[in-house]
Specification:
This protein is an alpha/beta fold. It folds into 2 domains: about 5-115 and about 350-365, 2-Layer Sandwich (Enolase-like, domain 1); about 120-340, TIM Barrel (Alpha-Beta Barrel), CATH 3.20.20. The protein has helices spanning about 60-70, 80-90, 95-115, 115-120, 140-155, 170-180, 195-200, 220-225, 245-250, 260-265, 270-280, 295-305, 350-355, and strands spanning about 5-20, 25-35, 40-45, 125-130, 130-135, 155-160, 185, 210, 235, 255-260, 285, 335-340, 360-365. The strands form 3 sheets. A 7-stranded parallel beta sheet has the order 5-6-7-8-9-10-11. A 4-stranded antiparallel beta sheet has the order 3-2-1-13. α7 links the parallel β7 and β8 (about 210). It is globular, with a radius of gyration of 20 Å.
Length: about 375
């Protein structure tokens, strides 16, 4: 395909409630959308970078700048989605920006071909089981009320954000209140060090599915050492930015589970490679989330339908985060979300809603 132009659109999406993790609190999302226009079709990509470089080194202003100055000039010749990563390889890093561009190209390509994301990626089912991520709260009673509400909505797995000072007591309270049958896991977002191993071992008796990213993102060796000291399986998130990183983590014994976030690894094609690698090595995977709008959520749900995704992911319904989504909302049905079956992402932004939340647009002709 020949890309004739690209629109960069910023939108402001207030969250229904503050979302607190070990690295900060979000009350709204400043989202960068990429719309690729070709003679055959147009496609959308959502950049998952946050407003500040807290989860990773990327942030939304920087992503917009690198897309405009460096990524788009590399895409002036006709190409397909499989060519994007190779064309952008000379630009180091910026995986979230690259993922947004590649996704938009892939969406346009699939819409032109009349093929869905799910079918292209290799989806094995038409709906996926859903979990929900619960942020750090001001009190344990507040946390218990939140978890009760999500379980009443039908979520099949609960993930609790933890940090030093907010870990054993709240997790134990949730387990005692809701019983052993609830699928429960925790996420530290790299808030601990190896010296906390004995403390983290206090989670071992709580029957958790996993502990996600307990240590620094750039330390696979320390994670391997921690894995030998805990019975709770270790899952890596921020540490895995590519299939090569996943292969190294598996070889070192740093994890037994991987959270695949397409934006973090550079796009859905690399996410599929990580899925294939993990499946071949007996490593469970699940699909993480970055508070995406309906555009990003549609692609995540399609990815989560691949056969190696054996654990419920963070593919929550739209209203978990947004009172009004920019697409038709994703609604939970018996703890599952349907995989969009239409061409490309299978969803479209609703123009009136999109215009209402738009804060800036820029058109770049290629």
């Amino acid at each position: 395909m020949k890309i004739t132009g690209v629109e960069l659109r910023r939108i402001a999406m207030p969250l229904v409630s503050p979302f607190r993790t070990s690295f900060g609190t979000e009350t709204a999302r400043d989202v960068l959308l990429v719309r690729v226009v070709t003679p055959e079709a147009e496609g959308w990509g959502e950049c998952v970078a946050m407003s500040e470089p807290l989860y990773s080194s990327e942030y939304v202003d920087g992503a917009a700048e690198v897309i405009k100055r460096f990524l788009l000039p590399a895409l002036t010749r006709p190409l397909g989605a499989n060519d994007v990563a190779r064309a952008l390889e000379p630009i180091k890093g910026h995986r979230m920006a690259k993922a947004a561009v590649e996704t938009a190209v892939l969406d346009a390509q699939l819409r032109a071909a009349g093929e869905s994301f799910g079918r292209f990626l290799g989806a094995a089912r038409d709906r996926v089981p859903c979990g929900v991520s619960v942020g750090i709260m001001d009190s344990i009673p507040q946390l218990l009320d939140a978890v009760a509400g999500y379980l009443d909505e039908g979520y099949l797995r609960i993930k609790l954000k933890i940090e030093p000072g907010w870990d054993l007591a709240p997790v134990r309270a949730v387990r005692e209140r809701f019983g052993d049958d609830v699928l429960l896991q925790v996420d530290a977002n790299a808030a601990y060090t190896l010296t906390d191993a004995r403390h983290l071992a206090g989670l071992d008796d709580l029957g958790l599915l996993l502990i996600e990213q307990p240590l620094a993102n750039d330390d696979l060796v320390q994670h391997a050492k921690l894995a030998k000291q805990l019975r709770t399986p270790i899952c890596l998130d921020e540490s895995i930015e590519s299939a090569e990183h996943a292969a190294a983590a598996i070889a070192l014994g740093s994890c037994s589970i991987v959270n695949i976030k397409p934006g973090r690894v550079g796009g859905y094609l690399e996410a599929r490679r990580i899925h294939d690698l993990c499946r071949a090595n007996g490593i469970a995977v699940w699909c993480g989330g970055m508070l995406e709008t309906g555009l990003g959520r549609a692609a995540n749900v399609a990815l989560a339908a691949l056969p190696g995704f054996t654990l419920p992911g963070d593919t929550s319904g739209s209203r978990r985060y947004y009172a009004t989504d920019i697409t038709e909302p994703f609604e939970l049905n018996d703890g599952h979300l349907a995989v969009p079956a239409g061409p490309g992402l299978g969803v479209e932004p609703i123009p009136s809603i999109l215009d209402e939340v738009t804060t800036a647009t820029e058109w770049i002709t290629l």
